[in-house]
Amino acid sequence: MKLAATTVRDANLTQLELAGLDAEVNVADGHARQELSAGQQRIIDHLPELFTRAASRPVAELQRAAHAAFFEVFGQHDRPRQPDQVLSCYSSSVAMEILARSLVREVDTVALLHPTFDNIPDILTGVGLRLLPLEEDVLGGGDLDRAIPPTVGCVFATTPNNPTGRVLPQRRLRELADLCLARDLVLALDTSFRGFDVRAHYDHYAVLEASRCRYVVIEDTGKLWPTLDLKVGLLVSSGNVGLPLGLVYSDLLLGVSPLILVMVERFALDAANGGLDELHDHIRRNRELLRETLTGVPAVTFPDADSRVSVERLECQGWTGSEIWEVLRARNVHVLPGRQFYWADHARGERFFRVALARPHRTVAAAARELRQILSS
Ligand SMILES: Cc1ncc(COP(=O)(O)O)c(C=O)c1O
Predict the structure, then answer these.
(1) What is the DSSP letter of 37?
(2) Is the Cβ–Cβ distance between 43 and 59 less than 8 Å?
(3) What is the position in ligand 1's atom list of the atom closest to the CA of 93?
């Protein structure tokens, strides 16, 4: 597909993902495009029965079943149980839009993790919110009280982060939640990549509920399972959040497809039944394949040694990420440049680019071979 923006440097990440959608080797977007596992294939083979079930059961019941299966497999036992505290959306971006539209009625400024996926700052600024960057190292271990000025009304973090894979540990989430309570800030989390990393499977809701802070969490089924973008984003909030999330939700949608809810339930149950280990193994093997193929190529290193998410950030010397994007694109191979992830300081992101790992092994192998050829020449 043609690139809508004038150059790679002007485009947003989703425009660049769109440009690579039908490419021979697409390792650009972070959506799940690996092959179905045997267990997942069995679910798809039964789609007509799932359709019948979806059409014949009350939506509230399907929703409860989908939510329970999804939250339980990732250890989120103390999640809110009231239906209006867990809103099912078409995608995590739609959940984000609802959060942004609600937030702007009460808050002027958001302290947002830096770097992170660029549609988060784009959606927040799109409704008129002001952003201040919260550096990953500061969120991980700095003086949060000093780093978050009094003008801020909400702190927003992505955990595990995209593209770095960095996880907010339990102790740090507790400190952040306590700070948000003390200063009456809304704490917002995007946990779209949680499924990939067991270090993010501690019960976030137990921490958040115990702190009594006002919180919103965006959960996502879309990065995990290769369901051709049949997915939901969940907008989860505390009872005391004080934002018109339900009202804004009703401005945009009535609900998601019951068929998708049934699929989410079945895929989550399959994950609990060994599918999650298979997925982790698949991503680990693709990460090894990429790193091994590029071993000994001095122009490239892997800064996120510990990452387990389904994307891998690479740091380059002698090239910018945007240049690598252009050279690969001429060969019909699509990655993402790092620049746009550094939404507050694009120049800092130019040292990086990102390769998606939720792909068949042969796709990652082909991308790695091309990269080796280009970077070795
Ligand atoms: C952390 C994060 N949140 C949300 C999104 C948006 O996801 P979707 O396109 O399914 O709405 C992305 C997209 O990659 C992401 O990386």
Answers:
(1) P
(2) no
(3) 11
Q: Specify the pLDDT at position 79.
A: 98
160 within ligand 1 shell (Cβ under 6 A): no
How many residues comprise the chain? 377
Q: Are 167 and 198 in contact (CB under 8 A)?
A: no
What's the pLDDT tens digit per position in 58-111? 999 999 999 999 999 999 999 999 999 999 999 999 999 999 999 999 999 999
Q: How far apart are the first and last CA of the chain?
A: 28
How remote is the CA of residue 190 from the centroid of ligand 1, in Å?
9
Q: Which residue has the tokens 């746009």?
A: 340
- Please state, rounded to an integer, the average pLDDT across all residues of the chain: 97
**CA-based Rg of the chain, rounded to a whole angstrom?**
20
- For residue 12, how far is the Cα from the chain centroid? 16
Using DSSP's 3-state secondary structure scheme, residue 53 falls into: helix
The pLDDT, as a whole number, for residue 5 is 64
93 lines ligand 1 (CB under 6 A): yes
In this prediction the pTM is 0.97
